[in-house]
Amino acid sequence: MDDKQARIRLAPATEDDVGLVLWFIKQLAEYERAPNQVTATEELLRKNLFGPHPFAHVVLAYVTVDGVEQPAGFALYFYNFSTWVGQPGLYLEDLFVCSEFRNLGIGKRLLVHLAQTARERECGRMEWVVLDWNEPSIQFYLSLGAKQMKEWIINRISGPALEHLADL
User: Fold this and answer.
1) In Å, how far from its chain's centre is CA 138?
2) Which of 1, 42, 92, 156 is a plausible cystine mate for 128, CB 3.0–4.6 Å?
3) Is 141 annotated as catalytic?
4) Which residues pair with 73 in a beta bridge?
5) The 87-97 sheet, strands edge to edge
6) Average pLDDT over every residue of 38-45
7) Could you say which of 62, 79, 91, 141 is catalytic?
8) Is the CB of residue 34 less than 8 Å from the CB of residue 55?
9) Is the pTM of this model over 0.90?
10) Strands 87-97 and 125-127, how do they pair?
11) Which residue, 123, 89, 127, 124, is CA-closest to 111?
C-alpha cells in the first residue's frame, strides 16, 4: 500500500474506544518486547482516561484504503510543567503505528497534531522517550528536529518500592 492510496484521519479517542486503546497498548508492548508487562485493563483506562478527572488524552489514527477505514495507530499524551520555562509541556507517553501502515506518514501526522496541540495550549516543549535499540524511531524523531537529552537519566519508583516510599 502506498500513501497515494491511503487517506489518514485523526480523531480524539472517546470512552467507546477503550477496547481499541487497550489493543494498541498491547501491540506497542509486543513491539517493545514486553508483552507481559501490560497490566492495564479497559476498566482502568475508562476511569483514568475518560473519568471525571482524565489523566491523559489519546489521539487515534485511521487509514482508509479502497473505501475501508481501519485503525492504524495512536498517541497517548498528557501535560506536565516546566518550572524553568514557566510553561506547561506536552509529554508523549506512547506513539504506535501498526506495522502494515508504517511509512504512510501516520507517525508524522500524529506528531504534527501534537505539536499543534502544544502550540495551542502554549506549551514550552514536547518531550518523550524512546528505547535505545529503536533506531528507526530515533532517526525519525531526529529528522523532525527532536534533540536527544542524553545528560538526563529517567528515574522510576513503582510497585513495592512506591508503597515503601509512601509509607516512610
Assistant:
1) 15
2) 92
3) yes
4) 61, 97
5) 6-12, 57-65, 68-82, 87-97, 125-127
6) 98
7) 141
8) no
9) yes
10) parallel
11) 127
